[in-house]
Amino acid sequence: xxxxxxxxxxxxxxxxxxxxxxxxxxxxxxxxxxxxxxxxxxxxxxxxxxxxxxxxxxxxxxxxxxxxxxxxxxxxxxxxxxxxxxxxxxxxxxxxxxxxxxxxxxxxxxxxxxxxxxxxxxxxxxxxxxxxxxxxxxxxxxxxxxxxxxxxxxxxxxxxxxxxxxxxxxxxxxxxxxxxxxxxxxxxxxxxxxxxxxxxxxxxxxxxxxxxxxxxxxxxxxxxxxxxxxxxxxxxxxxxxxxxxxxxxxxxxxxxxxxxxxxxxxxxxxxxxxxxxxxxxxxxxxxxxxxxxxxxxxxxxxxxxxxxxxxxxxxxxxxxxxxxxxxxxxxxxxxxxxxxxxxxxxxxxxxxxxxxxxxxxxxxxxxxxxxxxxxxxxxxxxxxxxxxxxxxxxxxxxxxxxxxxxxxxxxxxxxxxxxxxxxxxxxxxxxxxxxxxxxxxxxxxxxxxxxxxxxxxxxxxxxxxxxxxxxxxxxxxxxxxxxxxxxxxxxxxxxxxxxxxxxxxxxx
Amino acid sequence: xxxxxxxxxxxxxxxxxxxxxxxxxxxxxxxxxxxxxxxxxxxxxxxxxxxxxxxxxxxxxxxxxxxxxxxxxxxxxxxxxxxxxxxxxxxxxxxxxxxxxxxxxxxxxxxxxxxxxxxxxxxxxxxxxxxxxxxxxxxxxxxxxxxxxxxxxxxxxxxxxxxxxxxxxxxxxxxxxxxxxxxxxxxxxxxxxxxxxxxxxxxxxxxxxxxxxxxxxxxxxxxxxxxxxxxxxxxxxxxxxxxxxxxxxxxxxxxxxxxxxxxxxxxxxxxxxxxxxxxxxxxxxxxxxxxxxxxxxxxxxxxxxxxxxxxxxxxxxxxxxxxxxxxxxxxxxxxxxxxxxxxxxxxxxxxxxxxxxxxxxxxxxxxxxxxxxxxxxxxxxxxxxxxxxxxxxxxxxxxxxxxxxxxxxxxxxxxxxxxxxxxxxxxxxxxxxxxxxxxxxxxxxxxxxxxxxxxxxxxxxxxxxxxxxxxxxxxxxxxxxxxxxxxxxxxxxxxxxxxxxxxxxxxx
Lengths: 508, 508
What we know:
Chain A is an all-alpha fold. The first copy, chain A, contains 23 helices and three strands. Chain A has a domain at about 130-205 and about 290-508: Neurolysin, domain 3 (Orthogonal Bundle), CATH 1.10.1370. In chain A, about 65% of the residues lie in helices and about 5% in strands. Chain A has a three-stranded mixed β-sheet with strand order 1-3-2, with helices on both faces. In chain A, strand 2 (about 245) and strand 3 (about 250-255) form a beta hairpin. In chain A, helix 1 (about 5-35) crosses helix 3. The longest helix of chain A has about 30 residues, at about 5-35. The interface of A and B includes residues 252 and 288 of A.
């Protein structure tokens, strides 16, 4: 162990270069989604592929593996959660994953994803599942092969989905996720039944005319008041809202505006600001390294959903901000009392489209996809039988029966342009964790709800920064939950949150 | 010469990768200059340096040199201006330049440029030349050293400035440029004297209130009518207007708006659109290779200035568009007749600031800088004597005497953040060439001025596309002039243009 600091410095230089390439690639994507003229599309795809390729080449350079080997004694001499030890550990984890997949396979996968996406985009409006079926079959085959690169070699993998889940939610096993999801489904299905047995909320007030300029100004204000730092970010328009990070000092959000649906811009802005505040809150010492950025899809979603739903759809928050919203849109909202508005933004209904679902039913959409993924990967369900299995699960879980595949099994891009396995669980893990973290924050600061009702979100944000954001990727989701709550992932706090809120709303 | 097509294909793959890195870097800069939040600055500088470094490493890879050697027989078997031959020739030229400068020297230069820029930015408002003097002395030393890497080795270099001039204006020798500039100065000094002996034009109408929204809409319209393709570009706001290319399908322009100076946004938009139409007009087959983009600084400026001045400050153009401008700004312009407006936008006056100078005096600002650069490089002028030499030349050429160094020798960033030599000549070469190309276009299409007076710029644009734009970097500036005019660079057409326009305006 001669001079580990020099080796570590050398490693950081490599890592920051890779990060710079990835950040430039993220900017290529941000630009493409916000300002790029049509004529730029062809070259942009090529430029992005080049940057991905070079970043991957540089990250999988055997020199990095050698440095990581050299640094092992140093890492072992440090506490587990020392910054240096964590940087070495997380880099090794990512490096080992990256080198296990042969470049030729990655090229085949990337190429199939592009082809499959194109076919899906054309076939979906035609409701033509037969056309995508062979592409989906090949995607399933590739997804299994991807998993195979890890299954035999890596200790701890029990299920074919485990390596796939690890990509976005490291350390979450299919067995644990399935168990928690089964518990959650057992609670949610009767809750949804009880709510939907009642008179549905009238949310027509949200579909009046809300001029774009007012929505824009109000969205900027709301993002600011919850704590999104515009000195280190900005808000732009796009088709499919997303958050992207170029550095800890530049984390941007995007939204879309519908003049006849107030929810679109408002809640997507709060949602993306939640993602962004997480990345803005990472320890600045981690800049440019694998420790920057959120630790998992689930923890990321826990933050976007905590701010969007737990805060942004709470009565207290709107007690303070609803008069301000009415002042921006007097024509649309002057005659709508707070209580009606609050019920409108929390309307629960059985529906077919995941991205439009309310807070309660949303998880049912997600969990059935997760189960179908597992069944496909396990070989218990054939792709040709997927549309039928989809309809059966919608009927069973949501009492809603898709009339066609377009709004059924072809609804989400994930399986067609991404991979099968490991892509859906993060949404519901995020909801579950939002309940865990919210309860922990309230235990530490019982004054939080009262402050929010005064328009103050600082105590909550500070607690999240201290306990979650600043750690970046240092801890896995499970480690973070253990640190924050003293126990493992459990659905109870989330269920308590839902039962309290919706019990009061629907007098259950 | 076994399978040259395969070698060429291999070369192109390398070149396109380098181009993709450079395009991503250009986007980092565009974003930094338009939308980036303040917090992004530190990481952005690092990201940009990383991309530059990797692009340079990849372009100077000895594999490229070997491919170029292998391709020499194929190149020699083709006509000089065949696309393949030109690609090999231009790539070799750029490759040989890139490999002649040691990376350690480039690192020293880049680092000194950054330091020197910082000192200049702080010292200029203080009018403190003493503070920048040592930085300028080191810059002169580095500029000479840069030149030395080429002088001995490359045939055809006669003057220490020649290798520096080659970077932006390949093939233009200091001796030729000096000779043309001396001729031009001989014509311009008396012309400026004759004009400024008269009553100056009253241009107060340009300083009334022009609300930003109207300037923006009108600027978009004007860029469109002269032929800038918004399907392959866009206009955004920035501090210092520039054009940037990410691909032939995405060439963007920027402008700034001053509500009390109509000229700012209007003429900078036309100027940048001129640059951009050149790059948009390159043969699409050249995409991603060194043949795309303009061939030299001078030819590029010839296009921006042809559109800005020869077209955009012509009476004919405003005969058609002035009523439309008046309709956008009735409060400011309803009482201003076309003739007054035309005289205002062509006001000639002796002034101290290059970037604010009119079409006639502008070249005097540029040429004195070029001469001072040569004197510095030749060792005939010491940096400590530069402020005095600057004042003497302003007095002699412009009859204007800078009261301080801030608006004197410290006026332009070029020598402080760039290099000394090869940076100024392009502006006046561009003006000279704009006269050459304009005359050639009128010879081919005498109907052009009449069409412009009808608001139609298509014939002119088409001629420029066919004769200049589509060739990209295939021909050097001198080759292009020879092809277009049948002769060498000559100032007469430009002088004829100025004498006709200003003779009529000032009844000389």
